[in-house]
Amino acid sequence: MSESITREINRSHMQVSDEIAIDIRNMNKWFGTFHVLRDIDLTVHKGERIVIAGPSGSGKSTLIRCINRLEEHQSGQIVVDGIELTGDIKNIDKVRSEVGMVFQHFNLFPHLTVLENCTLAPIWVRKVPKRQAEETAMHFLEKVKIPEQASKYPGQLSGGQQQRVAIARSLCMQPRIMLFDEPTSALDPEMIKEVLDTMIQLAEEGMTMLCVTHEMGFAQAVANRVIFMDQGQIVEQNTPTEFFNNPKSERTKLFLSQIL
Ligand code: ADP
Ligand code: MG
């Protein structure tokens, strides 16, 4: 079990709303003839914090990439904040601006400073005036506790710092939902905590979050639901306490015995 969560979580803003943030109905996806996601049904309410777990290759990344249409599904329905994801480019742009995504490998632009990484999309996509975009960027760099790195280039920062820049960069677009795909998997152990702390802070502020992660300490501390995937299906979902202490399926039990 992860030792990375060392503080009490402030739950006062962590209520889950009745409003639906993401609604996925009977969704299927193929890569060519390979059926990668099977009959996915998933409803996420505003303010929910969901951890997606499962073995490598089970379809976790593909599922969250479908939610901001980095991948296209072939059947069923995905509705994000009331917008149905279809081929309509207007809807895709709208959804991308509401859904932030943080990847395992930060994906920062190496030739731009930290500040420029954070202001690029607000200026060019959102048409925010430069000065205002910089103020917002500094606000979020302070939030992730690295304002002093603003004029450096990503290559001059540690992995943990780069990932916090990536989170700040996403927040600069004022997303309503944040997707994380193994945000700490590429980090050295001593840097995992600083990134998890940033994610916990977001959760405490009420952000709707879907996190693919192997950090089960984070799942226990912050998630209100853990979803377990295997072979393209949601096999089981439950509260963290039930999921870890009373797993139902044999596949979940096997997975937990390997990681805990
Ligand atoms: P996970 O994130 O759970 O490890 P992925 O969603 O990345 O799983 O991948 C699920 C399956 O889909 C894997 O078998 C992977 O090899 C396959 N896959 C992922 N992306 C592609 C792609 N672009 N083309 C073909 N197969 C892919
Ligand atoms: Mg993955």
UniProtKB/TrEMBL annotation:
InterPro entries: AAA+_ATPase, ABC_ATPase_HisP-typ, ABC_transporter-like_ATP-bd, ABC_transporter-like_CS, MetN_ABC_transporter-like, P-loop_NTPase
Gene3D superfamilies per record: P-loop containing nucleotide triphosphate hydrolases
Record keywords, A-Z: ATP-binding, Nucleotide-binding, Transport
PROSITE patterns: ABC_TRANSPORTER_1 (PS00211), ABC_TRANSPORTER_2 (PS50893)
Domain ABC transporter: 22-256
Any one GO MF annotation of this record: ATP hydrolysis activity
Family indicated by similarity: Belongs to the ABC transporter superfamily.
Protein name: ABC transporter ATP-binding protein
Organism: Paracoccus tegillarcae
